Amino acid sequence: MPTPFAHLKALENLALKQSVGLPQREEAAQYWTALAYRLGDETFVSPLEQVTEVLPVPEMTRLPLAQPWVLGVISRRGELTPVYDFMGLIGRGSVAADSRARLIVARLGTWSLALVVSESLGLRHFQVDARRPFDEPAAELKECVIEEVVEPWRSWKILDLQRLLHGESVLAVSALV
After folding, report:
1. Given CB 3.0 to 4.6 Å as the disulfide criterion, which of 59, 77, 161, 170 pairs with 50?
2. Do residues 69 and 54 lie in contact, with contact meaning Cβ atoms separated by under 8 Å?
3. Residue 157 contacts residue 140 (beta carbons within 8 Å)
4. In this model, does residue 51 exceed pLDDT 80?
5. Bridge-partner residues for 103, per DSSP?
6. CA angle, 66 then 71 then 77, to 5°
């Protein structure tokens, strides 16, 4: 008659023979998150770390002698934030003032700037290796759109808000210039 210890040892050996083993270590895909939005008929994404918040378009105070695409300023928790019509800023008309329009707020150094877009499409998660150089940006976006994200069912132009906000047109707000 086997001892209790020998019986346990036999059970352990049987379990080891029939075990599948530990799962193999696989390399996990790396992802990044972006805010997707629409400007007219085009869709874009911007890295989430470049976006401070997304808001419905509020009432704003107009600025005299400003470019037509400078819609005014708003107060966000006590901070004055200029509001630009994104399509007007890039020379494509203006964003339709409807219930889908949103403000994308981005930080530019120590101050914020809000851009009115046609519609916010929410957050999207993309694999890092799905980014590709974008060779065909429109002339008004050539400094801001240098990459795209390619998925099996569609592609998204990546618009770098920091490059856009550091451009000359953002600072040329006076209509007198």
Report:
1. 161
2. no
3. no
4. yes
5. 55, 116
6. 115
In this predicted model, what pLDDT tens digit does every residue of 80-135 receive, in sequence order? Answer: 999 999 888 888 888 888 899 999 999 877 888 999 999 999 999 998 888 898 88
Domains by residue range for the chain, with CATH: 31-171 (2.40.50.180)
Instruction: Residue 157: name the closest of 30, 32, 34 by CA.
Output: 34
Distance between CA atoms of residues 52 and 102, nearest Å: 13
Rounded to whole angstroms, the Cα distance separating 99 from 143 reads 30
- Identity of residue 52: T
* C-alpha Rg value of the chain to the nearest Å: 26
- pTM of the entire predicted model: 0.77
Using CB atoms within 10 Å of the CB of residue 69, give its burial: 0 to 12 exposed, 13 to 18 middle, 19+ buried.
buried
Q: Hey, which residues does 148 pair with through a beta bridge? A: 132, 157
